[in-house]
């Protein structure tokens, strides 16, 4: 029988708690749900009012994965949704993860959480800029850190404050809080910044996605600033061989990174980091920290 749990007055059926999702570490679905429950205080503000896309992996990272934007069948009536425009001129509804019951219901589907750079009340008005630093082997996160430090200084020249998190996979994400700005304008600025980074660090950076250009370099992916794109949310678990997390990091950690494994954080690492640092990405949700891109 599927156990019924009450979360803040909502009754949830949480299934298959003993199912091993990450065979390399024995990490179970119950542990996944525990992770999201105990990290909710930090995670929920980064999901709030942002239409969520799910990368679902119900049989673990080695099983089937599928990306879902529309409201799934069987969604409880109390889960809030938002109408979201699509590039074809139509619209659809997506989930808003506004509270702990919704987070736990969504986590029970076994999912990564991905969000756009804008909020539901203002589609296409980005309140943050994101740069995804993706290394091409043999480059790794160490080279991403070198590029991140250059980008941090360059952004500061424009009066913008950058914050860093691991992707939870191989690279880093840089995020900048913004006064709401049209996504097209943010995208153009981000692309110019990536091109400038390639000009300054040609031995290390490529700004185009072309696979043949990427071995040994860091791809500065600016495309996620498009209004139609999403990025892995802070603190989401990833569908990787181990339960790695897209985890905020300090700039001292970025500057001091000498080995790729130094910036790999798993579910069990996050609670101690939150006790030590709090939410390092808290400034992203503080309008007083928001900057304006040039022009």
Indicate the radius of gyration in whole angstroms.
Answer: 19 Å
Q: How many β-strand stretches?
A: 16
Strand content is: 25-35%
Shape descriptor reads: globular
Low-confidence parts? none
What's the SSE pattern? EEEEHEEEEHEEHEEHEEEEHH
Count of separate DSSP helical elements: 6
| Separation of the first and last Cα atoms | 59 Å
Domain DNA ligase D polymerase: 28-280
GO molecular function: DNA ligase (ATP) activity
Keywords: Ligase
EC number: 6.5.1.1
Explain briefly what this protein structure is.
By secondary structure, this protein is of the alpha+beta class. It is built from six helices and 16 strands.
Task: Please tell me about this protein's structure.
The structure is a single chain. With about 300 residues, this protein is of the alpha+beta class. Helix content is about 25%, strand content about 25%. The strands form four sheets. Strands 5, 6, 7, 8, 9 and 15 form a six-stranded antiparallel β-sheet that branches. Strands 13-14-10-12-11-16 form a six-stranded mixed β-sheet. A two-stranded antiparallel sheet has the order 1-2. Strand 1 (about 5) and strand 2 (about 10-15) form a beta hairpin. Helix 1 crosses helix 2 (about 100-110) and helix 1 crosses helix 6 (about 265-275). The longest helix is centred in the first third of the chain and has 19 residues, at about 30-45. The protein is globular.
């Amino acid at each position: 029988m599927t156990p019924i749990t009450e979360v803040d007055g909502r009754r949830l059926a949480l299934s298959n708690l003993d199912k091993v999702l990450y065979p390399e570490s024995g990490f179970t679905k119950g542990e996944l749900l525990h992770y999201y429950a105990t990290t909710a205080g930090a995670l929920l503000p980064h999901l709030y009012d942002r239409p969520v896309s799910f990368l679902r992996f119900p049989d673990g990272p080695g099983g089937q994965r599928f990306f879902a934007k529309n409201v799934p069948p069987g969604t409880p009536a109390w889960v809030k949704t938002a109408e979201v425009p699509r590039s074809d001129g139509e619209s659809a509804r997506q989930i808003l993860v506004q509270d702990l019951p919704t987070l736990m219901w969504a986590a029970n589907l076994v999912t990564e959480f991905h969000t756009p750079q804008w909020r539901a009340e203002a589609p296409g008005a980005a309140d943050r800029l994101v740069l995804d630093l993706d290394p091409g082997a043999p480059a790794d996160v160490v080279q991403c850190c070198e590029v991140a430090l250059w980008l941090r200084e360059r952004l500061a020249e424009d009066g913008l404050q950058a914050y860093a998190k691991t992707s939870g996979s191989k690279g880093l994400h840089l995020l900048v809080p913004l006064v709401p700005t049209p996504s097209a304008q943010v995208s153009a600025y981000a692309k110019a910044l990536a091109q400038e980074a390639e000009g300054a660090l040609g031995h290390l950076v490529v700004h185009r996605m072309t696979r043949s250009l990427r071995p040994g370099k860091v791809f500065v992916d600016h495309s996620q600033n498009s209004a139609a794109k999403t990025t892995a949310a802070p603190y989401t678990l990833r569908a990787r061989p181990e339960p790695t997390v897209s985890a905020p990091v300090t700039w001292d950690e970025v500057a001091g990174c000498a080995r790729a494994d130094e910036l790999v954080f798993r579910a069990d690492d996050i609670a101690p980091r939150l006790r030590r640092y709090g939410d390092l990405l808290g400034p992203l949700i503080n309008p007083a920290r928001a900057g304006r891109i040039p022009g």
